[in-house]
Task: structure prediction
Amino acid sequence: MPARLDGLSFFFPALNEEDHVGPMLSDALAILPRFTGDLDITVVDDGSTDRTGAIADDVAAKDARVHVIHHGTRRGYGAAIRSGLGAATKPWVFFTDGDRQFDLADLERLINVSDGVDAVVGYREKRADPRRRLFVAWVYNRLIRVLFGGGWRDVDCAFKLFRREVFTRVPLERVRSNGAFFSPELLITLRRSGIRVRQVGVRHFPRTAGEEKGASPRVVLRAISDLLRLRVRLWRRPND
Result:
């Protein structure tokens, strides 16, 4: 019998994921009740121009546990995560991406090491991405280690579990990025605030439909710009 949580808010961002959003919700409704008897699920549709939002709305109309947040225009990955965290109501908050590159059953791995910590974050045991994206990620992770210190196995792994009270102690307003740098900035901010974080390996699978979005030149340049802004801000105001 898997360990169970006393309440779980699960969400995932989705941008033009019409092939994945329905199966993703089916997976969530089938798998996550193993871990809690009090579940809500939120899809954050970040300005999709395909049927992502409509498919999510159809599922929500049939199951009261499912909710949909629509961004009228694309706001960015970090803004979508921010919306999902802001909508969470249960004692625990879990999120992943909407491209089905993770198995929701691996939440059990996070729950199993959650005693005594405020958050458990996954790292990909073997990353199943194209070579170009692997190279970008390698450079990006090492740049963050140089500028902010080591300790993180995989700063961008989108498989994270938090006690919701964490965001009372460390308000999301302290995390400035609304782009791809949101996840690293969140981890950096939490560590600087004394939040206890544990890391655990999770499985990672190739994308089977749709287009990858995280390694486009526009996204990468915005992430690096946000990274450098944070580094300069912390040099100027170390207690920020």
Q: What stands out?
A: The longest strand covers residues 39-46. The chain has one domain: 8-236.
